[in-house]
User: Fold these one by one.
Assistant:
Number 1:
Amino acid sequence: MKIDVIEGLNVIPRCLGSVVFLFLITRIMGKKQVSQFSLFDYVIGISIGNFTAEMTLNTDVQYINGMIAITTFGVLSYIVSKVVNKSIRIRRFIIGTPTVLLDDGKVIEKGLQRVNIDINDLLEQARINGYFDISEVAYAIMEANGNISFLPKGEFKNPTKHDLKLDSQKSYLSANIIVNGEYMEEAIKKSKITKNELIKQLKKMHLDSPDSILLATITDKDLQFYFKDVEPKNYSLLE
């Protein structure tokens, strides 16, 4: 088989150009760990990967066409990431919502069916996270990115109160009652605080609305507020 050396060498500058261009697009899209990828992120990533491979190896494809396709998907990903940060409803539709698999020590079969896993998958993930006895877990939640988070029962936290011979306390999930400046009406109804009480708490902080609050959470007794536009410390050591 005759090898076209000239055509093969043409792939080199296309490859180098693709790496630089893909790096720039990735910077625009923002940093995100693979473990944080949603289904939408995977679709975008796979598409961009295919376009990059095609415009790099297939010399019959005009390079500019590949760049336009990658740019389009990159810009789309950037726009969607901004939109989902502004709208809870759109975020739930595109990214998805967490699913409770274990509630107060009880397995939620409908939750397992919803995310298309069985009890063996849940037990496997529990072992991976260090829980070889599922009875030690109070809550298990599959996040929107597919990872499963576990909250141990009070007596099995590390160091365990069982080992210290202290009275154990029931574990509680924190309720997100304000997200991105919006009241989470359903969460407030199910929490141990009323909306009027929450408004009074805001008044004490001289706030007429929750617009400046990024997140407010409540457990069985603690109410925490996290504000928007908080200036970070100078982490120059991380640069």
Number 2:
Amino acid sequence: MESELVSIGVATYNSAEFVLETLESIKCQTYPALELIVSDDCSTDGTLSLVEEWLSENKNRFTHTQLITVPANTGVSANCNRLTNAATSNWIKMIAGDDILLPDCIADNIDFIRKHPESQVVFSQVRLYRGVFKEESFVRTMPGNFPDNLMQKGYKAEDQFKLLLVSDRINYTPTYFYNKKAVVDVGGYDESFTRIEDYPMWLKLTRAGYKLSYFHKETVGYRMHNKALNNRDEQLLIKPQYFTLHKIRKQVAHPFLPWEMVASENFTYHVSKMFYRLGWNSESVGLKRFYHLLAYYANPFYYIYVAKKRLVKDGSKQYFYK
């Protein structure tokens, strides 16, 4: 059987320290038919020259290569849109310029969609490493167990949408493998969200009827390091990213949630904002306990939510209380 072309999109921004390792992992894929697109979001650290040289030396490995550049930084969502729009194949594997694909990543994803042709958006397991991709730096695999909280066989896209409204249950985003048509159909990534691209996309896809699929196999290596936005400020009680996510949830999730869930979340947000402004933002045991006392035990809407969680057993709202 002739191999179907797959586009690999690499999103870079000041990735000079790691991007060559990312590119080498793509070159070493066991799957043969690959298109490689790199989209750089106005790096200032020499990423472009490294990528240009590598592409020149390794272009024969791919059916097509492309380097996309922009004159100013636009944010991760716009970068993802550029990669998606530039892809000429039906299937796309996106990866950040500091992570790696495991050798059989593309082959395993293609094998899955051939066995499950209804699947349009696919996830799998990701291996987490601290700093470098060496066995002694391995942290854990995520998810460790099959993620029944979102990927149960009986769940429809509508069910997944409701579950994701409650919280982003996908902590294995780097494994995301998707059909271009699905993302284009929902209007692409929302570029007004410059720092968080994934959670709004999961909601758009599931709301539009695209069920998220999953297979339990490691496909990607994720690097935990201080330069990555998601890994900064690990010792803080309230991460700066929390406030960005709350702002996004107000737009994409709150309009669909029961009132007491929105009220409870807003109550916790104001407690978090108070702690942040007062400088009470370390991971000390005392501050942690005080924060949880105010944000949850002193939160009147939390108790309404807990009560309804016990009462709601079926119907269209049951997924909000799982």
